[in-house]
Amino acid sequence: MVLKGKKILIGVSGSIAAYKIPFLVRLLVKKGCEVRVMMTRPATSFVSPLTLSTLTDHSVDVDFFDHEKPQKGWVNHVDLGLWADVLILAPVTSNTLSKLASGKSDNLLTATFMSSRCPVFFAPAMDLDMYHNEATKSNIEALVSRGYHLIPSESGELASGLEGEGRMAEPENILAAVELRLSASLPLRGKKVMVNAGPTKEAIDPVRYIGNHATGKMGYALAKEAARLGADVHFILGPTDTAFDLEGMQVTRVVSADDMYAACAQCFPEVDIAIFSAAIADYKPKEALVQKIKKSDADMHIALIPNVDILKTLGNKKQKGQMVIGFALETENLLDNARKKLHTKNADFIVCNVSGEQTGFAHDTNEVWILSEDKKEVHFPLKDKSLLASDLWAYFIEHID
Ligand code: CTP
Prior knowledge:
alpha/beta; Rossmann fold; eight-stranded mixed β-sheet
């Protein structure tokens, strides 16, 4: 999850362990990463650039000048470094390690390392005695002290025939170390988040219901973004036909407001942050008939009774440290009406949907205001719901106690 969609640059230097890099590339591609590889010239003797370019679907960069690309002969190490969300240097030979530690940039790999701004991981690979040499130890310490992430070498049979420490970590272990480190730095790591979304359907008889046009897209975008930011997400979704990629979150599907209430009430006491974005039907038929209503010439009246107000009920049970976020859908007096909801429902924030041609139910874009008790209203202009979700989370995270 944490790696999905990430741009990963791998820097390979000249060790026999380079033969394992195609396996690392495949693991990263399977995780949904876009992968590029750069190599030192000696590394190309251990694993073929053709193999790596085939697996990554990108050309492999080796030298500052690529004479096979006449229109773009200069491989720009600054662009390459900025392209990467994560740089993995594996294997790192003793020679490359000493260049990294001393800041020498005499090849594309070391120059790109020097100009990168993203998290950098390095996995040394060398023979037993080289690995234990004091110079190697101090080079590793120098890199770790500057914030680069060491993926320690493993013990086992070495290419020299000796047994001991110095083998590059296995590709699975490199992947696990990168995932662990990246998820540890996510802002919602360790937080439990509940999001409800979608419409509800209130049965009139076995074939008819009262519902609304909500699709759950805004709530989904918030749940997905929370999961991407490291939260443990419980997504409670009403009956929508919209297909969502629900990977990485716990999901409960519900139909009526009563079902939605039961699912939210069970989850709420455990969560740190609860977002109520669902468009709950305010009323339900007093009685859901077991048999289909037959038509007649007379007018039809259906007695309705109010549904439970889920946000209000749970908002008023809020414990210290919990953050409660509601939504408001208004067709007039947007901010005044929404402010009343903030108070009556005991929410920390109300996200007010601005009505417009490209906002609200079923649209992929939205525009909102956020209201809170003691802070000024904040406007979030029209944008794609997934981008808006990212802006809203940045705002909420800033206000977590
Ligand atoms: N809400 C809820 N339970 C309900 C009705 C609404 O939890 N029975 C929540 C919504 O999920 C939303 C907020 O309350 O977070 C405001 O919903 P909205 O439809 O804008 O307002 P209502 O409270 O239903 O009031 P009105 O329809 O009169 O504007």
